[in-house]
Design brief:
oxidoreductase, seven-stranded parallel sheet, oxidoreductase activity, 42% helix, 7 strands, binds NADP nicotinamide-adenine-dinucleotide phosphate, alpha/beta, NAD(P)-bd_dom_sf, Rossmann fold, 238 residues
Length: 238
């Protein structure tokens, strides 16, 4: 991969896949900025990766904050949006607009970032969004997530037609071993993920580093555009 000396922003770079992208991009010799919704967490994660990594605060659910963020910062070559979460629950639970928050983050949050950042991306640069296996293999109770991952993947296609010279792609992770599962699965986390792994053709769930290398590939290849790259161990087929 020809990926060094680039300016890379990882939105949601304080944990899991985003953190792995920040680490890998830094190790390849790029200038990395990462964000968290909490400034101390962003700064601590950045420092843990390397002295020249910058940690900033950003919540992409706040459109005004997103605009102020990009107005105050220099441009980037590539932006990866990892920000997102998985919501489990019945359609009839709670209030619809609250349940749709995770969808809002993936669609409106990502669009807010593109709107605010598009004129600060260098020609030949790119955005990478995060979809997920629940687009193709909906998971019971995770209907919000399925809607959100599908929206993120479709963004990579529709935006290609809007902005020449900039590329738009999405990574679509299958089950990946990240802190996201800690709260969702609690003490059964490792048992459930081990059971999931046995159902996959590769007999393992993905590591955040395996997803990260796909993100960096999408950034690095100047002819890959409008693509959704699945990193799911063949999970869509079983
Ligand atoms: N792990 C999987 O199996 C899997 C599978 C398919 C898709 N995905 C998707 O991949 C992405 C990364 O997942 P992960 O497993 O690495 O999760 P994670 O470890 O929980 O990390 C999520 C990251 O997103 C950030 N974030 C969340 N909401 C945000 C918001 N509104 N604005 C800005 N940042 C926000 C978090 O930052 P702070 O909490 O520090 O603010 C954190 O850095 C998510 O979109 C997830 O849905 C994951």
């Amino acid at each position: 991969m020809n990926m060094h000396n680039k300016k890379i922003l990882v939105i949601g770079g304080s944990s899991g896949i985003g953190k792995a992208v920040a680490e890998m991009a830094y190790s390849m010799g790029n200038h990395v900025t990462l964000t968290s919704r909490q400034l101390p967490k962003a700064i601590a994660t950045a420092k843990s990766i390397g002295n020249t990594v910058t940690g900033l605060q950003l919540d992409i659910n706040d459109e005004t904050q997103v605009e102020i963020f990009f107005n105050a910062i220099e441009g980037f070559d590539h932006i990866y949006i990892a920000a997102g979460s998985t919501k489990i629950g019945a359609l009839t639970d709670g209030l619809l607009h609250q349940n749709l928050q995770a969808f809002h983050t993936r669609l409106i949050g990502s669009l807010s970032v593109v709107r605010a950042a598009i004129h600060r991306i260098s020609s030949g640069g790119s955005f990478v969004f995060t979809g997920g296996i629940s687009t193709d293999r909906p998971i019971p109770g995770a209907w919000v997530s399925g809607l959100g991952t599908a929206a993120a993947e479709q963004l990579a296609r529709v935006l290609v037609m809007e902005y020449p010279y900039i590329r738009f792609n999405a990574v679509s992770p299958g089950y990946t071993d990240t802190p996201m599962w800690d709260d969702l699965l609690g003490e059964n986390r490792n048992t459930i993920l081990a059971e999931v792994a046995q159902k996959l053709p590769v007999k393992k769930i993905a590591s955040p580093q395996e997803v990260a290398s796909a993100v960096l590939f999408l950034m690095s290849n100047a002819s890959v555009n409008g693509e959704v790259l699945h990193v799911d161990g063949g999970g869509r087929l079983v």
